[in-house]
Specification:
Blueprint lengths: L2 E7 L9 H11 L11 E5 L13 H13 L3 E6 L11 H10 L4 H4 L3 E3 L8 E5 L7 E5 H5 L2 E7 L1 E3 L3 E3 L1 H6 L5 H8 L4 E3 L8 H5 L5 E3 L4 E3 L9 H5 L5 E3 L4 H16 L6 E7 L21 E5 L2 H13 L30 H10 L6 E5 L1
Parallel strand pairs: 1-16, 2-3, 2-7, 3-4, 7-14
Antiparallel strand pairs: 1-15, 5-6, 8-9, 10-13, 11-12, 14-15
């Protein structure tokens, strides 16, 4: 069965055709009013951006989604879960401060902020899914409790899964901290022969899993939670991911995404923003030059079709020479493999299709 994906480009020459009004039309054309219950609680799932990052979805683009939920008599709230890594969103206090600092305040977006997995990631619910890697998954309690959900995702590159869109926003973004650990544990860091035993990672590891061996640093994998902080702080770039495990990681991601919406059949809508298409996730504390030009906004009730369409549209563009793209600049080539050549992001699409999260077959409808 083919899923419908609605697309609006960013061209505009009038007030009625500005980006905010395009978002409103996408909401209507996608039939998202059907998912909002009168008096029901509607979660608007976002990524508020790590402190220092500036490529997350602009709060002014979230406002019209909030307004449409209110027009349909729903009660919207903005939400995300705390991060596994120890940054500016690791607990709810810092997370809320970061979100407000980035403009996601009630005065701007018109909805309250709720961190869905509690103060330190302890608020979660077990959802039974009976898939290959997981029988049950741990989803943020307030996301699971919401009557409906609108998932707003910034589509961009990602070092572990090639790209991040709606599927990753569901998988990692809706999982509580224990669920994030379950997804990451197959792809924990490894110390390469380039290690000089400088000890920087030992002092920076938040769970004290690093220690100095005879000739290089070592990792106690019984303690490691897979936050990958060490990859960023190693001055010699001597810590890498186990690239052979990325396929398993993406399959686990797809299963968590499946669990995040399992109990919301017909009650979830998805919007992808193809703007500031950077090489990295918004979890990093910087924003690099985009890989391709801004393209537009897409909406669907199928996250797999939506990510498939986003992936295809980006790859149809010519890549920027002065970006992180190492190759694949030409139209039609895989831009994300041009950055993260060890990772085939399509695995998350094919596996999500296989387990029934959605379909890769789509019809693109211009709005």
């Amino acid at each position: 069965m083919v899923s419908r994906v609605y697309f609006s480009d960013l061209r505009s020459r009038s007030k009625g055709d500005n980006t905010v009004n395009k978002i409103r039309r996408l909401f209507d054309e996608s039939g998202f009013h059907k998912i909002v219950d009168r008096g029901g609680l509607t979660a608007i799932k976002l990524h508020f951006g790590e402190e220092g990052n500036d490529s997350f979805i602009k709060p002014i683009f979230v406002g019209p989604v909030v307004d449409k939920v209110k027009e349909n008599m729903g009660k919207p709230f903005l939400t995300d879960t705390n991060t596994l890594y120890f940054g500016s969103r690791h607990d709810s206090v810092q997370h809320l401060k970061t979100a407000i600092k980035h403009g996601f305040d009630y005065a701007v977006v018109g909805a309250p902020l709720v961190i869905a997995d509690g103060l330190r990631g302890e608020n979660w619910k077990h959802i039974e899914i009976n898939q290959k890697h997981f029988q049950k998954v741990k989803i943020g309690g307030d996301i699971e409790s919401a009557d409906s959900m609108l998932v707003l995702s910034h589509f961009k590159g990602h070092g572990m899964c090639g790209f991040g869109g709606a599927i990753k926003n569901l998988a990692m973004g809706c999982a509580a901290a224990p669920g994030k650990i379950e997804q990451h544990e197959c792809a924990r860091p490894i110390i390469t022969e380039s290690c000089t035993a400088c000890g920087v990672c030992v002092g920076e590891c938040p769970v004290y899993a690093m220690y100095l061996g005879n000739e290089k640093c070592q990792i106690d994998y019984d303690m490691c939670v897979g936050c990958n902080n060490c990859l960023e702080i190693c001055p010699d770039s001597a810590i890498e991911l186990d690239w052979d495990k990325m396929e398993i990681f993406m399959e686990k991601m797809a299963e968590y995404a499946y669990g995040a919406v399992k109990n919301k059949k017909g009650k979830v809508g998805y919007i992808n923003f193809l703007t500031d298409i950077t090489p990295d996730c918004d979890c990093v504390s910087w924003s690099d030059v985009p890989l391709v030009p801004d393209m537009g906004i897409l909406a669907s009730d199928d996250p797999v079709a939506l990510d498939s369409a986003s992936y295809d549209l980006i790859n149809q563009q010519k890549g920027f020479k002065d970006s992180m793209l190492l190759h694949n600049h030409e139209k039609g080539s895989d831009k994300f493999r041009g950055v993260w050549e060890n990772v085939d992001g399509k695995i998350q699409l094919t596996y999500a299709d296989k387990i029934g999260l959605g379909t890769m077959d789509y019809e693109l409808i211009h709005v």
